[in-house]
Amino acid sequence: MLHPVGPLPTRVYWRRRLVVLAVLLAVLGAGTWGGFLLLSGGSANAGGSASTEAAEPAPTPALELVVPSLTAVRTPEPPEPVAADPALPAPEVAAAPPVEAGGPCSDDMLAVEVRTPGTAAVGAKPVFELVVVNASATPCVRDLDKGLQELILLDGAGARVWGSNDCFPESGPDVRTLAPGEAVVFPVVWGGLTSAPDCAGERTPPPPGSYAVRGRLDTKSSPDAALALT
């Protein structure tokens, strides 16, 4: 190898050997450089892909686009009770409107009572009393017209025996202002005979027995008062 043998000059053979050597070196260098580029390029691509994938956020699941996550929904908290401030005044309660002084006396503001002697002889003429009282705490006005007053006598079975307006009715305005607790007394004389409305029928003395006298002022009635005829 080192001493070529042939018909050509020695330098020719050396040149050929140098050319072949240079080609071999070039091929080896190119192969080594290509392998280095492949290795370095693959690592760079892998690193770049990994970093790109790490930088990009994961896509939101399709279900969460429609139904929000439970962790994203805030449940409202109940309000805390507010303690009453003792320095603040207590709320006022609306009171019922007071009755106007000097206004009309309603039936609820009045008390009506009948007084009798308790006992009377058959055919006698006892005196009864119709008592009207302002039972309220406010002065009020009421018409005490005699045409609005009436006394009736009832027997033990509750049948009507006599009425004060049957035969001798009276009428006339009598508007009064009644002070609180004021009582007005109206005496009524019974003639001792039976009667009917408009004074119809025969009038006779009722027989002995237990009776009751009931009074009224317009629409306000009294409890019954006892009367015994002997």
Number of discrete helical segments: 2
CATH superfamily of the largest domain: Intracellular proteinase inhibitor BsuPI
What is the N-to-C order of secondary-structure elements (H for helix, E for strand)? HHEEEEEEEEEEEE
Number of strands: 12
- Which term fits the overall shape? rod-shaped
- Beta-strand proportion: 25-35%
Mean pLDDT: 80
**Spans with pLDDT under 50 lasting ≥5 residues?**
46-55
Quaternary structure: single chain
- Largest sheet, if any? 6 strands, mixed
What is the CATH level 1 assignment of the largest domain? Answer: Mainly Beta
Write the CATH architecture name of the largest domain: Sandwich
The termini sit apart by 184 Å
> Residue share in helices?
10-25%
Helix-and-strand structural type: alpha+beta
Supply the number of structural domains.
2
CATH topology of the largest domain: Immunoglobulin-like
Organism: Blastococcus aggregatus
Protein name: MucR family transcriptional regulator
Region (Disordered): 196-230
